[in-house]
Design goal:
It contains 3 helices and 13 strands, in the order E-H-E-E-H-E-E-E-E-E-E-H-E-E-E-E. It is mainly beta. The protein has one domain: Acid Proteases (Cathepsin D, subunit A, domain 1, Beta Barrel), CATH 2.40.70.10.
Length: 156
């Protein structure tokens, strides 16, 4: 299968709070538009140090990660970012890999946004069509499905 790319916007999630609290104006939210590699083998969002700096992300912890070639690398885990693709979004703590040149959009944010790779057309698509579908599980009552409605979830 070939490489699949997605045009996403990454925003420092803390800036949403800073805007709401009146600490910064809306236009000062730090965001970057990026062409990310959709990597279902990556666990989460992986960003470069340059993207971390542009977004002004603080480092929360240091951790070890295993790369695709099975080598280990010490990386930084940054404060949360919002990932936006079309009308869908997810918030996660990105892993900052030293020397990374590409942004990788991994499995957890893909699942959270109800997205999958269409292997025939080599593109990112909604797992359940254009409308985002969330899944809730209840221990005694089985599975409940719901769809996000703009009036309930205006930021989706």
């Amino acid at each position: 299968m070939g490489t699949v790319f997605a045009d996403v916007t990454l925003t420092n999630a803390g800036d949403f709070v800073r805007v709401k609290e009146g600490l910064i104006p809306e236009q000062n939210k730090r965001a970057v538009q990026i062409r990310a590699i959709v990597d279902t083998g990556a666990v989460t969002l992986v960003i470069s140090e340059a993207v971390q700096e542009k977004l002004g992300l603080e480092i929360l912890e240091i951790s070890e990660a295993t790369l695709a070639d099975k080598s280990k690398v010490v990386c930084k885990v940054a404060e949360p970012v919002e990932i936006r693709w079309k009308r869908r979004s997810s918030v996660c703590k990105p892993w900052v890999i030293p020397g990374a040149e590409e942004v990788l959009l991994g499995a957890i944010p893909l699942e959270d946004m109800d997205l999958m790779v269409d292997p025939r057309n080599l593109e990112l698509v909604g797992r359940h069509g254009e409308e985002r579908l969330g899944m809730l599980y209840q221990a005694r009552h089985g599975q409940l499905n719901f769809t996000a409605d703009d009036s309930v979830f205006p930021y989706q």
